[in-house]
Amino acid sequence: MQIDEAGYKRPRLNKAYQDQPIASSEATKTLNRSCPALTLDITPYKTKNYHPIWGEILEVLRGHAQDKEIRQAGSSGGVISALAEYCLKHKLVDGVIQIKACDQNPLENVAVISRSRQQIIASSGSRYAPASPAEAIRLVKSSTEKYLFVGKPCDVAAIRQLQKHDPHIKQGIPYLISFMCAGTPSITGTHQVLDQLNVSRQEIIGFRYRGDGWPGLTKATLKNGETRSMTYNESWGKVLNRHLQTRCKICPDGIGEFADIVCADGWEGDEKGYPSFEEQDGHSLILLRTEKGRELLRNAESDAVVKVESFDAQNIFAIQPFQYYRRTTILPRLLAMKALMLKIPSYKGFELSRSMKEIGFYQSFKAFTGLLVRRKKIKRSQLKTA
Ligand SMILES: Cc1cc2nc3c(=O)[nH]c(=O)nc-3n(C[C@H](O)[C@H](O)[C@H](O)COP(=O)(O)OP(=O)(O)OC[C@H]3O[C@@H](n4cnc5c(N)ncnc54)[C@H](O)[C@@H]3O)c2cc1C
């Protein structure tokens, strides 16, 4: 996986394969059935309780890691890192597949297998830039060890869909944990954050998008020991979220439907219910999606690894308004893309027409025409530059 000119990670064929006919190879067939950019099929993982906005949910909780260091380091309440450490400690897995900032280049995200508490803490926090934990799959292929896999909903969907066709990957990865995702910004977004902090890329030895508090600061550490920072609201809200890749804007699965457990920010709303980004002790929203996920979380709770309380599923909307809006407007956006004869991924089982009904005709029409107008503008500006 390599960053392309637009600043997103894209697959490149290894040299050894470049001269081979690949279209009919087994690897290509498996890729076509598993890659979330091409296809997402949630049908095998649904029951009659399926919720048209939030997917399959056994329980909704709000809570945090009991370990103070992990809670502080984590992006929200540190629940993902706490569960990862629990899995290692109790030998449920041999390693945790996750991403972290590269030691040599803190702007690059690398896939790693963590085997200790220190490595898990070093990988904690959200990284709002291209990252591909599924790259570590090649190590699973040649190993008999067991792993917990942590990734964005698309990373986890790729592994879950691959597991259907590859029993070795199914055995090797017994747990999949994800987090809600509003989309991946290009690396250009990060470069613009650095520009606003008045820092050159060569000067930095560390870069965090958030975490180390909740939501925590976006912070660049310079070679001379100085730090420069801005708030999460400034970095994500004013820069990074303007660089999301197109596929993320039509993603029906920002909510991690293929995972055993999904975490998100457990914001407390203001009087209008809008999430507050005031600095405070971290809280995670936790969606338990499978029995295996529920067992893991409840065992970790019994061992005082996480502290949780029930959360009313009706209130998810108030703290995740973006996820609600995107999910309910996917279908009109897809229809607009079809009208423009653009290629769209195949989505099965997401009940998108049911979710569209939630927002009604006016909002659906707005989403449909909004996409048409934006696309036309892009085309016109491309014509001008050409
Ligand atoms: C691109 C992006 C978009 C997000 N959008 C939302 C959203 O819309 N709503 C919301 O509530 N939360 C969103 N989050 C998630 C949120 O910031 C927290 O990560 C989540 O609540 C888990 O918190 P935690 O404290 O349990 O995680 P931690 O204990 O801090 O663990 C985080 C884990 O995520 C992994 N990780 C971090 N960045 C990436 C990445 N880019 N790709 C793959 N793995 C990664 C880390 O390696 C680590 O294992 C987003 C995060 C990212 C990276």
Descriptive overview:
The chain is α/β, with parallel strands linked by helices and 386 residues long. It folds into two domains: 286 residues, no CATH class; 57 residues. The protein contains 16 helices and 15 strands. Strands 6-5-7-8-12-13-4-14 form an eight-stranded mixed sheet, with helices on both faces. Helix 2 crosses helix 7. It starts with a strand and ends with a helix. The mean pLDDT is 93. The structure holds flavin-adenine dinucleotide (FAD). The site of flavin-adenine dinucleotide (FAD) has 36 residues, from helix 4, strand 5, strand 7, strand 12 and helix 14.
Q: Structural class, from helix and strand content?
A: alpha/beta
The Cα radius of gyration reads: 21 Å
Bound molecules: flavin-adenine dinucleotide
- What strand order characterises the main sheet? 6-5-7-8-12-13-4-14
Helix content: 25-40%
What's the main sheet like?
Answer: 8 strands, mixed
Provide the domain count: 2
Number of strands: 15
The total of helices stands at 16
Shape: globular
Provide mean pLDDT, rounded: 93
Structure, briefly:
Residues 145-312 form the Coenzyme F420 hydrogenase/dehydrogenase beta subunit C-terminal domain. This protein has 386 residues and is an alpha/beta fold.
Give short descriptive properties of this protein.
Co_F420_Hydgase/DH_bsu_N; 386 residues; FrhB_FdhB_C; 16 helices; alpha/beta; binds flavin-adenine dinucleotide; 3-stranded antiparallel β-sheet; 8-stranded mixed β-sheet
Describe the secondary structure blueprint for this structure:
Elements lengths: L1 E2 L5 E2 L4 H4 L7 H9 L4 E3 L17 E7 L2 H6 L5 H11 L5 E7 L7 E6 L2 H7 L13 H5 L5 E5 L1 H11 L3 H6 L2 E5 L7 H10 L7 E5 L9 E5 L4 E4 L1 H7 L7 H4 L11 E5 L18 E5 L2 H12 L3 E5 L5 H4 L1 H8 L1 H10 L6 E3 L3 H34 L1
Parallel strand pairs: 3-15, 5-7, 7-8, 8-12
Antiparallel strand pairs: 1-2, 4-13, 4-14, 5-6, 9-10, 10-11, 12-13
GO molecular function, one term: 7-hydroxymethyl chlorophyll a reductase activity
EC number: 1.12.98.1
Enzyme class: oxidoreductase
